[in-house]
Write a structure and sequence with these properties.
25% of the residues lie in helices and 25% in strands. It is of the alpha+beta class and 156 residues long. The longest helix has 15 residues.
């Protein structure tokens, strides 16, 4: 079949997780049988709903612009992986996405603020401090106005 030949791994719709990485098992007409990479269960999906990906795109990436592919299914998967590892901030280029853990995470406390004053962004884990520092330096060095947009539900 075309999909099985084209991709070993696909992102597939999932009733609970929204999107999950899967291996193609079989194809029959417009339907594809899949096995989640965690091996937990078999899924069935319409072939047109699947997004073929490379396994390299499944790695936990602190900056999603560095993924081999960029698709909304991979964005959700990457943010989910990072959140499960208590990495609540993820860059998408110059932007940062934050997922509220509803608890304190020690590695993100105010003690790390000095690191963001003294080191380049790519040497540090993603953080809102980096966005603030970048805006501040651009204001001081460029002399132009700066904007930072904060959007979301809790605490935005």
């Amino acid at each position: 079949s075309d999909l099985a030949k084209m991709a070993q791994i696909v992102m597939a719709p999932h009733p609970k997780e929204v999107w999950v990485p899967c291996k193609v098992v079989t194809e029959a007409g417009d339907s594809t049988t899949l096995l989640t990479l965690e091996g937990e269960k078999e899924l069935s999906a319409e072939t047109k709903e699947l997004f073929p990906i490379s396994s390299a795109s499944l790695t936990d990436s602190p900056d999603m612009t560095k993924l081999n592919e960029l698709h909304h299914s991979l964005i959700l998967h990457n943010i989910r992986q990072r959140y499960q590892n208590d990495d609540i901030y993820t860059y998408i280029g110059p932007m940062v996405v934050s997922v509220n853990p509803f608890r304190n995470i020690e590695k993100y406390d105010a003690r790390c603020l000095d690191d963001y004053r003294n080191k380049p962004r790519d040497e540090l884990m993603p953080h809102l401090f980096a966005v603030g520092q970048s805006a501040y330096y651009s204001l001081i060095n460029g002399g132009g106005s700066q904007s930072v947009v904060v959007s979301g539900e809790s605490g935005a």
